[in-house]
């Protein structure tokens, strides 16, 4: 892997320290680094191992400028050395179950799993499938944000954009969902201190 392991933070430390960073220094991020980052984000689990996430790395300045406009002018979209658009494509995922059903399963079991998966999705509307894929892709988004923090990058996940405009700019089909745009780079600010609900507000035990 091209990444420098010595600077990695643990997952626990990354969860403790991560905040949104919207300003970055000018150090560029190579395609190799982005590929390694996305490879790690793609280690996320998903139901049936369907892995509907598809990442698009943006380097072309003209495309960036258009995306910034579609993201209501958010400066980090235009300025970040790294920019990923996270999409979820259930049609592509369901058309390629051969690649996602575990290869170590015996062939007859693989066929049964594929049938079960296809059956589950046949019972859903397209909107339900899209929502399902989006939920799974958000697991990869969480991985991505922690991986970036662990590797020393600052990141800014965004939902503040017009999805129809982003689809148009990237020539994405109508069924493709866009769970987030993520800008990242080496931090040039410390961001707001982390502010979260205390654990007692989000956890209860049932005896
Ligand atoms: C899915 C998602 C979408 C977000 N969209 C935006 C956005 O469009 N613009 C922005 O500046 N911040 C955006 N944020 C950042 C949140 O406001 C931020 O994560 C939250 O306030 C907690 O702050 P922290 O990340 O600094 O800890 C988004 C965060 C997430 C997870």
Can you offer a commentary on this structure?
With 207 residues, the protein is α+β, with helices and mostly antiparallel strands. It has a single domain (5-202), classed as NADH Oxidase (3-Layer(aba) Sandwich). The chain has ten helices and four strands, in the order ααβααβααααβαβα. It has a four-stranded antiparallel sheet with strand order 1-2-4-3, with helices on both faces. α1 (11-17) crosses α8 (126-150). Bound molecules: flavin mononucleotide (FMN). Flavin mononucleotide (FMN) binds next to β3.
Secondary-structure map with pairings?
Layout: H1 11-17, H2 31-41, E1 53-57, H3 61-70, H4 75-79, E2 82-88, H5 90-94, H6 97-100, H7 107-122, H8 126-150, E3 154-158, H9 163-169, E4 177-185, H10 199-202
Helix pairs in contact: 1-8, 2-8, 3-9
Flavin mononucleotide binds at residues 19-20, 74, 156-160, 180, 191-192, 194.
């Amino acid at each position: 892997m091209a990444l420098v392991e010595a600077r990695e933070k643990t997952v626990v430390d990354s969860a403790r320290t991560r905040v949104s960073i919207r300003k970055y220094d000018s150090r560029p991020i190579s395609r190799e680094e982005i590929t390694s980052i996305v490879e790690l984000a793609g280690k996320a689990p998903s139901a049936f191992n369907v892995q509907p996430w598809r990442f698009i790395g943006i380097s072309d300045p003209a495309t960036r400028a258009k995306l910034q406009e579609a993201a209501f002018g958010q400066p980090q979209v235009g300025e970040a050395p790294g920019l990923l658009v996270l999409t979820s494509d259930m049609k592509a995922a369901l058309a390629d179950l051969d690649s996602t059903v575990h290869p170590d399963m015996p062939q007859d079991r693989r066929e049964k799993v594929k049938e079960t998966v296809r059956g589950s999705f046949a019972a859903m509307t397209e909107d339900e499938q899209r929502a399902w894929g989006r939920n799974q892709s958000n697991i990869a988004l969480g991985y991505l944000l922690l991986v970036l923090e662990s590797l020393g990058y600052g990141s800014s996940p965004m939902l503040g954009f017009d999805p129809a405009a982003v689809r148009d700019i990237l020539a994405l089909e109508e069924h493709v969902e866009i769970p987030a745009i993520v800008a990242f780079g080496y931090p040039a600010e410390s961001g707001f201190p982390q502010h979260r609900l205390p654990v007692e507000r989000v956890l209860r035990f049932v005896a």
